[in-house]
Recover the amino acids of this structure.
């Protein structure tokens, strides 16, 4: 999550009794919960291996002290007229349960606890376990529902647990500075500001920012997109060496930008080269803590900013960083409007197949740290097999200066090998842009020498294999295997394999009637669309060659020309 310092003091404690409105972001998660979606995409799980003499009573008391301090950790939700309201409960003891477990069974035990659904109506919205796995060795597991927390908040939670543990283990009371507001005040303030029209300027900005930009990013999927997201995901990790990270930081300084902006620009270039699309949206989480009173408050503040990427192949990487910097700063200035409200106002086509507006995301994470005197603390990987996006990249700055990059991907859409290749290309691209920031984006390589040689060798082998199936033949096999499955998505247009096959047949009949066949060239003067794909398949089915054209190309040099989706042949 991108750090954004609080800039103004606007909040006051409302002191209201009884239920109060949920924030817009909380409402989205509540509605998902009401629809039966209580999946792992809505939880923050953290597991820490603690090696050394641990004061279990002090740790349990520290957790309870943090729960007492932050109302959102003891909040439940009720429905009134179909809308969610927050109900703040009294401080309580979470009861840190200690479980004896054999080391070989630890992973299974952790997964079982993480997978338990939360009941937002009865609470609590968090659970903690302490596994005793050996002499002076424990694993502390903390799981909090996203409706009560975010990445920034988790840093606060672990810092305050550390402070409270230190006090309690020394025989003192756990004491914290008084919070002037709680999250219910933030949610009410957000609702009041929206009702008063204070977000009108933000809405105008985002409408203009996203005007004309496709709402769905057409990525090269390995599998047809299911009719509904399962949120099943996997992730893989690679490390950017400290030397490469330092080079990127130096480039950022030259450009008057942050390292995050340089990394985001490189990610946009990667997606543009991978998808063949130069105008798309990348989700960028932001802290969204505009008021100074919220800096030390736990709650679901994080907002998703739909940042428009415009990648000009003729420009340099330095030019792209400048555009990303400008777009990012503008987005931060308008981060107050909840993404959920923005979606409602812009009203893109809603479907269960993909997220609205944002299908890929890029995020800077921080690893929350627990400090326990005399105890070594090691973070364990307990990331559940889920993802909220088609593809998302989180990176963490390591103490060594290296960057750990985690690629999360929807396993319904991509094979691991495809994402591994993408991650390798991103790592290579980061080295390339740091060394050649003035080079045109069109010529910056994304394949290292080894992968380029392998791709060229594969192409040569396929050309030499005269028995290899042609593209039209392979498409016919796909039509026979899954005629009713989606084959292409073009905005609001979704064509099944059978429908695309029928359109390709129509193209083939028309160009054949006009004499197209072997040794002829058919020009395709069409935008990137479902019709372009049908035209390509139809021309190949006729035995001719196709040539994608710029509309300004002299048409008289061609044997045939397809001008539009209405089969304007000439």
């Amino acid at each position: 999550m991108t750090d954004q310092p609080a800039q103004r003091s606007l909040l006051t404690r409302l002191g209201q009794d009884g239920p109060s409105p949920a924030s817009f972001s909380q409402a989205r998660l509540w509605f998902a919960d009401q629809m039966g979606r209580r999946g792992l995409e809505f939880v923050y799980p953290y597991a820490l291996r603690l090696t050394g003499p641990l004061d279990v009573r002090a740790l349990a008391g520290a957790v309870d002290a943090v729960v007492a301090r932050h109302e959102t950790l003891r909040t439940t939700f009720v429905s009134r007229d179909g809308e969610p309201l927050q109900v703040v409960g009294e401080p309580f003891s979470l009861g840190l349960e200690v479980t004896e477990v054999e080391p070989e069974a630890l992973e299974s035990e952790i997964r079982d606890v993480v997978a338990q659904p939360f009941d937002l109506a009865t609470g609590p919205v968090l659970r903690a376990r302490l596994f005793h796995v050996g002499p002076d060795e424990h694993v502390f597991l903390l799981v909090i529902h996203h409706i009560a927390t975010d990445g920034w908040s988790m840093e606060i939670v672990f810092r305050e647990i550390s402070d409270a543990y230190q006090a309690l283990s020394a025989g003192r009371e756990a004491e914290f500075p008084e919070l002037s507001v709680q999250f219910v005040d933030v949610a009410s303030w957000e609702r009041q500001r929206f009702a008063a029209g204070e977000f009108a300027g933000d809405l105008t900005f985002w409408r203009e920012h996203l005007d004309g930009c496709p709402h769905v990013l057409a990525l090269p999927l390995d599998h047809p997109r299911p009719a509904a997201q399962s949120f099943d995901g996997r992730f893989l990790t690679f490390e950017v060496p400290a030397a490469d990270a330092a080079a990127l930081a130096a480039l950022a300084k030259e450009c008057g930008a942050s390292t995050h902006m340089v990394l985001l620009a490189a990610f946009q270039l990667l997606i543009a080269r991978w998808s063949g699309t130069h105008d798309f949206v990348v989700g960028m989480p932001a802290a969204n803590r505009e008021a100074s009173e919220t800096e030390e408050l736990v709650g679901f503040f994080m907002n998703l900013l739909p940042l428009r990427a415009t990648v000009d192949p003729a420009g340099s990487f330095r030019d792209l960083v400048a555009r990303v910097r400008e777009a990012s700063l503008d987005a931060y200035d308008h981060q107050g409007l909840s993404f959920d409200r923005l979606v409602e106002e812009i009203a893109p086509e809603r479907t269960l197949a993909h997220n609205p507006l944002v299908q890929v995301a890029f995020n800077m994470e921080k690893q929350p740290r627990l400090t326990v005197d005399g105890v070594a603390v090691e973070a364990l990987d307990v990331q559940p097999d889920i993802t909220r996006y088609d593809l998302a990249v989180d990176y963490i700055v390591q103490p060594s200066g290296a960057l750990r990059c985690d690629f999360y991907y929807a396993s319904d859409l991509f094979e691991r090998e495809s994402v591994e290749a993408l991650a390798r290309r991103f790592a290579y691209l980061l080295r390339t842009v740091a060394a050649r920031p003035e080079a045109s984006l069109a010529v910056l390589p994304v394949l290292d020498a080894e992968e380029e040689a392998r791709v060229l060798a594969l192409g040569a082998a396929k050309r030499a294999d005269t028995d290899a199936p042609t593209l039209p033949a392979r498409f016919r096999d796909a039509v026979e295997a899954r005629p009713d499955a989606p084959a292409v998505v073009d905005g609001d247009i979704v064509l099944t394999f059978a429908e695309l096959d029928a359109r390709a047949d129509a193209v083939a009949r028309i160009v054949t009637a006009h004499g197209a066949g072997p040794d002829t060239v058919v020009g395709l003067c069409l935008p990137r669309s479902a019709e372009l794909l049908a035209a390509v398949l139809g021309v190949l089915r006729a035995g001719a060659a196709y040539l994608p054209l710029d509309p300004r190309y002299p048409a008289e040099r061609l044997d045939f020309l397809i001008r539009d989706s209405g089969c304007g042949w000439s």
